[in-house]
Amino acid sequence: MPRETIALFLQSANSGIRVICSHRSNPLSCSFAASYETESIENAARAFAKAVPPATISAVYIIVEASSADTKRIEPALKAVGFANVSLLNYDSLSASVAIDSANITCEVGEFLVYLFTTFDLEAGFILQKLQNGYKFVKMSYNVPYAIAKYPALKHVILDDVDKCGTIRNECRSLYPGKECHFVTFDPIAEYWKYLWNKFDNGNFGGNLVEEAINVDLVFKFSNFCVPFVLRGMPFPLTTAFQLDIAEASKLDVYVKHNATGVPLFFKTFNFKGKKDRVLNVTVAVGLDQAVDVSVDTVGPVVASAPMPLADGKVGLKLTTLTSAYQYSIHSKTGTTTSPTFNSIDAMVTDVRRKVPPKSVHFIFYSFKPTLTDEMQIDAHQARKQLIKYGYPCLNFTDSLRPMASQMFFGYKDCDAIDEFDNYDVKTVVSIIDEREENTFTDFGDRNVIVGCTRATFKRYQNLYYQNVFNHDDLDGYMVYDFSNVDFTVSWCGNSIELSTGFVTPPYDWTIELDLGNACRLQIIASYPLCPEGDAGKVFKVKEIGSSKVALTFSVKSEFEADVNCVALSPGRILEPISLCLLIERTAKGFRKTVYFRDSDKAIVDHCPNMFVALEPFKQAKYTAIFFDATNSTVAERQTWNAEATKYGFKAVKFVNGPVLMLNSVLLGVDSNNFGDKETVLIADTTAVDKAGQKTPLTYVLRSHQKKLKLQKVIPAKIDKVYSTYSVDRVFVVVDEASKRPKVPAYLNPVFLQVSNQFISKHLFSQIDMNSDTEAVVDHITGTAFVAEWKGSNQVFNIEFENVPFSRHVAIHVGEVKSLRIKTTHLNSKQRELLKEFSFKTPYDRVVMLNIAADEKLQFTNTKDDTDEAKSSRL
Predict the structure, then answer these.
(1) What pLDDT score was predicted for residue 655?
(2) Which sequence spans correspond to the domains of the chain?
């Protein structure tokens, strides 16, 4: 057989080993074919070499559909008998490339399409993207109709429908409405040889070549658990790792799956000595030869044995709502006893009373599933009512998610389990496996993945969890607290408004003010029962209230309890439309979000990785003023934040400088009438932190005028270093806690001021209330300097401490230049941000007139007064 012949070496789990060859003279047909029933790869290679001399073969391509362990053996076996150019063929690349080529479609560079790789599952396939010379794998999914929602411009869906089945084609069209479905049929021998010869010639298959990617999946099995690990479509070489909780399993079996519908084939087993609780670190590697390797190491678990937190001689009760029944368990220091199931709450409570007297019970938990129905809620309240009636301790409501999540987060550490991984900046994912169910974890990217076991987790940490609950501890920071999302409907005299708390931690109170006009009655309905009996809502008669202007306070008391209170307001009161203030501040790890409540020192603080997480869960924007701390933010960022806040519907959007906000808040406790005119005031801030979150000393220099203070300088130094450079009249020191005052020189004779939520809240509300009697002591400033740059020169306009709104005309002699750049820089910062660039058509000695301005939202503008070249000023 002459040179310019290529061979295909196929190993299949069902049909053994086959070899076929093709010659250049007739490239789309077979010049040799043979089957070898032997199970030995080495024997098959020798038989092939005997039938076809290796010197006559230009290249051998391998397709493997058997155990991945064989992949590493085939290439050496063929080379050992004389075949020189041997490589593993990527079957997914082959099949996808052939399907796209047969579909005869045209895609623009950057466009996406779907290739469905089997008619047996029309939701399984690849999302591909067009490149300059072919296509690349973007994503493999077993739920393509859901996955393509992220690619709204995707137009083409391709299916290899060799059977030309009308039913399958109709089903495909219904699954992908609005997409162009292409059903391709082709001669596989001809198309495959076309692909192989193109590969041999290093071609791009007419622009339809799909890049190679991993084309196998793994399946891990232990005890009664099955954990698929999806690799298909990922680039190689690849090394990835995840944690796998196998509890007390004595072995871990690994299987290889070569296609979506195929049966997993055994790959290897890991055996473990002794019955021991284990968490494994599993490492999966795929080399350039596409061979898969798996290794494991034992990494845990955390041992946290603890006794059940029970008083001597007493037990704990756990009541559970199942899918269609009820059950309880008795927890003692020696073990747990589980009751049979009951078909009603009454039957379960009757059994509890018969077997467990009230005086022997230390605590009661009622555990719900997160998908609790209204009927189940009413049952739960009924159970609590009956048990309290018969002398049992107060029943604690909880869902089944929070205890499980708390214990898993504690056991595995640093864990998140959120669907929108990118939006919420998720770093670690806990995927929960349930007994006798097939579980998978895909779309997690390069995040830290932990496959957790519920049964093992509860066995390790349940007692410790109960201890922390009753001792009001936080489980080392991993406690998931109660949360509730209650929707209220408020109706009066033909008017109706919908209010949502969003997910909040009880107890949570929120007040709004309403004018009921001529209404006779006011009705409020909540999504959860407003009392243990499960009433539909509350009704207030306006005549009994005593005023048509009212304050409604919505109270979320627990996860499944809500209430509302109505208080009359003075008929002459001007109602405030804003009841909450939301402050967003940048931190070293994202943003700090603080919610302030009107006339309250209460504040709720959340730390968020990005602005989306800070704003998306907040559902009370209509009644909220949002304040952004503009410190160290760019003009572009402030524009984006303003647009986002407007999109979410906040009642007011404000921007503040952090130093001014802090100064106005702490000075609320100081009578500004005591300031003389033109006094120099130093304020040391011992609470300030830098970009990295580390404490850093700051000293503010202010000058008094007409009962107000003008900020003149911010110095990153301790106050005693600044004091000697000024003639100082007053000194203040800002501290976190009044009881923990820092040591300062006695000659400073300072007054200590404490940062408090009450003062911050009062200042923020004073900035948006229509009838506020509180005035800011320190005026709002730009916090930014302008810098003009041109041809090796620059001029700085130090307007950092000018009040906003601000506007000034300036003249700059720039000479003969082609361009002028205007930049901004923050307080005490060397970094500059380009704001605008002006270009000039003709060079001459030029003076440019600029208007630099800043509005109350700290949006900066600058305009060149003379844009007409003929009118530009000359020297």
Answers:
(1) 94
(2) 5-88, 91-207, 315-399, 487-568, 580-656, 659-766, 784-874
Give the separation between CA 580 and CA 765, rounded to whole angstroms: 8
Phi-psi region of 782 (alpha: psi -120 to 50; beta: other; left: phi over 0): alpha
* Largest pairwise CA distance in the chain: 108
Predicted pLDDT at 873? 41
99 vs 187, 190, 192, 848, CA distance in Å? 11, 13, 11, 63
Task: Please answer whether residues 596 and 603 qualify as being in contact, where contact means their C-beta atoms are separated by less than 8 angstroms.
Answer: yes
Q: Which residues of the chain have pLDDT under 50?
A: 1, 370-372, 399-400, 408, 414-419, 435-439, 529-535, 866-875
What is the structure's pLDDT at 374?
A: 56
Instruction: Please give the structure tokens belonging to residue 771.
Output: 């009838």
3 state SS of 159: strand
Alpha carbon distance 297, 591 (integer Å): 37
Which letter does DSSP use for residue 865 in this model? Answer: S
Contact yes or no for 306/250 (Cβ under 8 A): no
What is the rounded CA–CA span in Å between residue 656 and residue 783?
Answer: 9
Query: In 10 A of CB 349, how many CB atoms?
Result: 23
Nearest C-alpha neighbor of 754 from the set 772, 742, 768: 742
Please report, as a single letter, which amino acid is at residue 17.
Answer: I
* Cα–Cα distance, 403 to 465 (Å, whole number): 7
What does the alpha-carbon distance between residue 751 and residue 744 come to, in Å, rounded to a whole number?
11
Alpha-carbon distances of 104 from 90, 97, 158, 621, rounded to whole Å: 22, 11, 11, 51
Q: Say which residues have a Cβ less than 8 Å from residue 675's Cβ, sequence separation at least 6.
A: 681, 704, 707, 709, 730
Q: With respect to CATH, is domain 659-766 assigned 3.30.420?
A: yes
Evaluate whether 535 touches 503 at the Cβ level (below 8 Å).
no
pLDDT in tens, 544-598: 888 889 999 988 887 667 888 999 999 888 888 999 999 999 988 889 999 999 9
Cβ proximity of 633 and 587 under 8 Å: no
Q: Give, in order, the Cα–Cα distances in Å from 439 to each of 216, 228, 233, 397, 420.
A: 17, 7, 19, 29, 19
* Cα distance from N-terminal residue to C-terminal residue, the chain: 88
Intrachain domains 580-656 and 659-766 with the same fold: yes
The token pair that represents 224 in the structure block: 């009664």
Cα Rg, the chain, nearest whole Å:
36
The secondary structure of residue 424, as a DSSP letter, is T
**CA 204 – CA 195 distance, rounded (Å):** 9
Tokens of 97: 């490339």
Strand ranges (DSSP E) for 686-792? 698-705, 708-715, 730-735, 751-754, 784-790
Q: How far apart are CA 548 and CA 522, in angstroms?
A: 10
CATH T-level fold of 5-88: Nucleotidyltransferase; domain 5 (3.30.420)
**DSSP character for 356?**
S
Total length of the chain = 875
What's the predicted TM-score (pTM) here? 0.69
pLDDT tens readout for residues 128-187: 999 999 999 988 888 899 889 889 889 999 998 766 788 889 999 999 999 999 999 888
Residue with tokens 């495959």: 192
d(CA 94, CA 348): 62
Q: Angle at which helices 757-766 and 658-666 pack, to 10 degrees?
A: 110
CA atoms within 13 A on the CB side of 680: 12
Closest to 99 in 3D by CA, of 231, 214, 192: 192
Annotation: CATH topology of 580-656 = Nucleotidyltransferase; domain 5 (3.30.420)
Question: Is domain 315-399 annotated with CATH 2.60.120.200?
Answer: no
Give yes or no for a contact between 557 and 541, defined as CB atoms under 8 angstroms apart: no
* Per-residue exposure over 539-554, b if at least 16 CB sit within 10 Å of its own CB, e if not: ebebeebeebbbbbeb
* pLDDT, position 4: 86
Q: What is the pLDDT of residue 603?
A: 93
Q: Which residue bears the tokens 């207030």?
A: 540
